[in-house]
Amino acid sequence: MSVNQQAHTGPPYGQPQPGYQGYQQPAYGGQSLPGVPQAQYGAYNGPVPGYQQPVPPQGSLRAPPTSGAPPPASGASHPSGHLAYSQFEHGDVQNGIPASAAPMQRPPASQPFLPGSAPTPVSQIPTFQQYGAPPASVQQLRNHMAGMTIGGTAASAPPPAGLGYGVGPSSYPPTTGAPRPPAMPGPPLPGQTVAGPPSSQPNHVSSPPPPSTMAGLHPGPPMSGLHGPPPPTHPPQPGYQMQQNGSFGQMRGPPPNYGGAYPGAPNYGSPPGPPPPPKRLDPDSIPSPIQVIEDDRNNRGSEPFVTGVRGQVPPLVTTNFLVKDQGNASPRYIRCTSYNIPCTSDMAKQSQVPLAAVIKPLAALPPEETVPYLVDHGESGPVRCNRCKAYMCPFMQFIEGGRRFQCCFCSCVTEVPPHYFQHLDHTGKRVDFYDRPELSLGSYEFLATVDYCKNNKFPSPPAFIFMIDVSYNAVKSGLVRLICEELKSLLDYLPREGNMEESAIRVGFVTYNKVLHFYNVKSSLAQPQMMVVSDVADMFVPLLDGFLVNVNESRTVIASLLDQIPEMFADTRETETVFAPVIQAGLEALKAAECAGKLFIFHTSLPIAEAPGKLKNRDDRKLINTDKEKTLFQPQTSFYNNLAKDCVAQGCCVDLFLFPNQYLDVATLGVVPYQTGGSIFKYAYFQLETDQYRFLNDLRRDVQKEVGFDAVMRVRTSTGIRATDFFGAFYMSNTTDVEMAGLDCDKTITVEFKHDDKLSEDSGALLQCALLYTSCAGQRRLRIHNLSLNCCTQLADLYRNCETDTLINYLAKYAYRGVLSSPVKTVRDALINQCAQILACYRKNCASPSSAGQLILPECMKLLPVYLNCVLKSDVLQPGPEVTTDDRAYVRQLVTSMDVAETNVFFYPRLLPLTKADVDSDSLPAAIRNSEERLSKGDIYLLENGLNIFVWVGVNVQQGLIQNLFGVSSFSQISNALSTLPVLENPFSKKVRSIVDMLQGQRSRYMKLIIVKQEDKLEMLFKHFLVEDKSLSGGASYVDFLCHMHKEIRQLLS
Ligand SMILES: [Zn+2]
Known about the structure:
The protein is α/β, with parallel strands linked by helices. A hairpin with a 4-residue loop joins strand 7 and strand 8. The longest helix is centred in the last third of the chain and has 22 residues, at 824-845.
């Protein structure tokens, strides 16, 4: 197989494209393969957008039936002129169903999409049994833990060795790439008494043992056409079966103290209703996230997920699986709340299930999967529908012997350009079907022509500008020196395209406090030159030549500068900073250089110095739970919104690293990063010893990761639905185009769809996400993702094909945006009400008749209540006393760009019993549910949520284990100021550290490690993440919340 030597062509199928994702390159050393030419491109002439497309007409035309997908052609000959892909292996895709979206009936007999242990969808009927009051020990511990903050710790632990950034691809696995834990053969709670209460909780009322029969099982609706697979072979799981026994509402009458179980009850806002359901629900009898995750791993983790079938629900994000693209985009790029959407808007409204797609256009893939091929159609550019401008994709229908094609989105018929003509085989399929990614794959890229560039000029390579706060706090904490030291080596790892020997990205440097200092680091200089701009009211860039430079050419001067900066400001007394002028300076520099780029701003304090964008301290915790609480999330001035708009127009993306010792108004400072597609990182009470490792890891990854610039995303849909709402870090100047100055591989955009016409079961529904962006080498590209969904006339089909993790991702983003404009209580009530309606609709229309007192949950949504409760209890919607206003603003923005895997672990953290880990295997110990009563005093646990890793140590842990993990001889000697685990040469220490490293590698941010000793003051912080328990801030326990949801549902049904 020979690789075509033309520039801009992809390698043959079956091979990953080399090094296309900058940080996945196997080595950072020079590579000698020919690079992509860049000199051919001119520069921008200004911010005039060149990506303007007419809004597709909607509503009048129906998509054509696209059934009858012909079988794959093989052995066909190709005309000359399509050499670029003629070497593709056919075998790789021949066995799939190509994309033409024949209306797939229910999935094939193997039904891999049905998670859970039930062979057919079975409604789970949790049993109301007994639950006790919160254990007394909880209350006791909580009493003396007020006022702790994470950042207040100080320690001097040595950083672990061997984790420099010169690491191979394995250090950046995909977020779903966790090795699967072993199957859980026994009870899911090692070391824990499942049936009875822990001995430390004397007030706990024991649950009666669950009945062992299935007498109470109420199956879901009969599912026509379903022939279920044989029951899964894995053994019955305790704690899961039990929920199928008994039923709600047939218990012992209202409990005397039911109301006492709801500290947050006033927030629910529900009208007085029928008597509350009986109390005493056994936590083991209600749906368990751990069990659902484990079942999906067992059922779906072994086979690749092949995307050839329309409307297939992918495995859960917590399952490690490989994806084979056979015509639909990988779930790593797009996940939907449902893969079978109602045909009419009436049905959709009735169900209240939001129709949304969570899209991560530049997602990183595991090494085993192929990055999208780059298709080059030369000067003519990509083939598109004449009317709606959809890009050529597997769902387009070729007609008239291949001379024209009918658009799958708007039905318009378009001539095939002569250079693109190809004959059809006897089934109507183009004979070059398998040679063209855009005809056979769900995801691919087109090389954009000059028409897709600003001002009709090819872009220049982007630039990175490092802008360092050198005020007193930044210098004194050692931060300035740390950054400068790091940059000396980090600059060698700027993103590179493909096989290029060096990065095309130019770099520049600015320092600032009340004034700005620009540096000339031109390669011909012996020493860098500083130019001070003290008139920050009207920012300009004092030098053009020598500000943005090539790292290799100016290596000596840059090194000298980075050596000098810490010295120059070592004795500074300046405590005040400006902020907006810093962004303006970066923006002006990029404008002058006629390129896009990214500003890396390292900032420490509220910008109170006299300057545009000056802020005042307006933090006021008294506003919490008032109608004015929303102002805490709003920027205090519109100045930054306008600045963000200018930045987006230039392709100036801002990444902000914050090191606050007090309130610095993240809600306002975050506006520009947020609207330009950038990131915010926050290190409260930054201390060199404890926090440098985390910060440096974040910085290294942020600088190296794949990023596209000057990006515009448009989502097209087939007739009947359209994209109506968008969530994420971006800017929109019209109702359809999502603009991002920068878009990196971690950023997610969530899109909501609404009906504007009827859909048909035959045609299904199609999405096409097109992202136009500039690569790190300045190449203009289009990345296309296509996805076909089923449509249904029966609500049961909708509920059977939902994805709760994605639903929660959408609901959280919806709620987190809602707090900007509505009181938090209103937002919470709306969330509860919507979910109650979703579940009530299922109960009414899909579940088989049964006692009105029973709670019946759809199989695919049985975790909706527990996950929803986690969203309701989150810091944004129900802050505890230790959560600052800046924390809430920070988290609110973070969540808005999270993918489904990230929201999943963020809202329901992963809790692993470390002392149950098998030191001889690579696997993780089986996770347990997030509740204090699952913890044993004799064990050590790890809890991670994507931002933090807690290591919790029980008071009765064996001394040997403590010695092995912490290197001290007793529990009392463990320092909870450790920020890393000591490196000790024993199997347990190695195992735990490897688990921590693995988890760190899976997340997009380096998590803060916090050691928590049982009954220590920090334990309060840890308990905040035991999300099945009642929270200190008034959040309901899972059991209580399920009762509450049941009540809400019954009210809706009555
Ligand atoms: Zn069209």
